[in-house]
Each structure stands twice: as C-alpha cells, then as structure tokens.
Specification:
By secondary structure, this protein is α/β, with parallel strands linked by helices. About 30% of the residues lie in helices and about 20% in strands. It has a five-stranded parallel beta sheet. It is globular, with a radius of gyration of 18 Å. The two termini are about 25 Å apart. The relative contact order is 0.14.
C-alpha cells in the first residue's frame, strides 16, 4: 500500500513547479527532493548530465540541459587541460588530431568522482572532433560500470554531425543502452531542449 502511495505521489510531483528544495516525509521514509528555482522537473529518476568541454561551447549546452531537466551536473576534465594549440585541427601533429587518429588513446581524467552508480540515466555531452567523440569520452565510459544504465548523447559541432558516434562508443560501455543523441548548434531555445529531453526520457 505504501509503495502504491509513493508511486502516485512521485507521479503527481513529476510536473509540479516548486520554488525551492523541500524534504517530504511519507510514513517512515524521508524524500529529500532536489527542486531548482525556475525549473520544471520533468523526470523524477536519478539523472546526470556529464560533459567534456574544451572551449566552453559544450559546457553552455550542458548547463542549459541541466537547468531544463533538473538533473545533476558533472564535468569530465582531462588531467592535462587542452590549450588552443592542442585544439588546432588543421595541424595533424596537434594533440587533439593525434588523439583522434589513435584508437588506443585514452587521455587521463583529472578525477573519477562521478557517482555513476547513483544514476539511472546519464546524458553525455562533448564536442565533435574528427566526426566522432573525443577519446576522453571513451576514458570516461571505461572508468565506470554503466551496466543497466541509459546513456543519451548530445554534442556541439562546428559543422559535422554525430554520425556513428553512438555505435562507436558502445564498445566502451558494455551493458548500457546508448540512445541516439542530439546536436546542439547555435542558440537552441529552452523549449526545444525540453521537448527533446522529454522525447528521450519519458
């Protein structure tokens, strides 16, 4: 009976706009619910937005997605940050070019503090480099156990699309379900981000 009531309660809360963080108590259970100012919580499962951003573009997209769906946010950081010279895609000997051309390359992470085990669904965002995800995304995926998780990709790009990125990354996260992603280029409205998030989450 209690479980049924809890299910009904969470369903009712699903689209309710609340002004601040609240703690709910049902029987002996405490529900510490994250509510963000001026955000509509559209998904009650534990959701994480993880992203890698070398220039700040993907970071902005990640923050917009984070704000719209009321998820947690985690930045995937390299142990050694990328310089402008590293990101020169016209130089075949630049760090980013050489990494993209080496299938065995796995750039080291600055930390491994993402509590992946706490989440059901993980959005993973990154810039498109040489028509695919930067190798640090493989490092991230291979550093945790994503078994039973849903991974939804999103990316930013100066021109190329996601291509076969989902299929290519699947070998780095065995046991997870990778869903086709979304390319965020330019100034995408909150409403469009919300519509896309709802289509993949609900």
């Amino acid at each position: 009976l209690m479980q049924s009531f809890l299910t009904i309660f969470l369903t009712a809360m699903r689209r309710k706009r609340l002004p601040h963080r609240k703690r709910f108590k049902i029987g002996s259970m405490d529900l510490d619910t994250d509510i963000y100012d001026d955000r509509e919580v559209i998904f009650m499962s534990k959701t994480l937005v993880a992203f890698f951003s070398a220039t700040g573009t993907t970071k902005q997209a990640a923050k917009k997605l984070f704000a719209v769906i009321g998820a947690d946010l985690y930045e995937i950081k390299p142990e050694v940050p990328y310089s402008a010279k590293d990101l020169n895609w016209m130089d075949k000997k630049s760090r980013s070019s050489m990494e993209c051309n080496d299938d065995t390359c796995r750039p080291k992470l600055a930390d491994q503090s993402a509590s992946i085990e706490e989440y059901d669904c993980i959005f993973v965002g990154f810039p498109i480099w040489w028509y695919t995800a930067p190798k640090i995304i493989r490092t991230f995926l291979e550093s945790y156990d994503f078994s039973g998780k849903s991974i939804i990709l999103f990316a930013t790009s100066g021109g190329s699309g996601l291509g076969n990125t989902a299929k290519e990354l699947s070998s780095s996260c065995h046991g997870a379900v990778i869903k086709e992603g979304k390319l965020f280029n330019g100034d995408v409205s909150d409403e469009k981000v919300k519509q896309w998030a709802e289509s993949v989450l609900l």
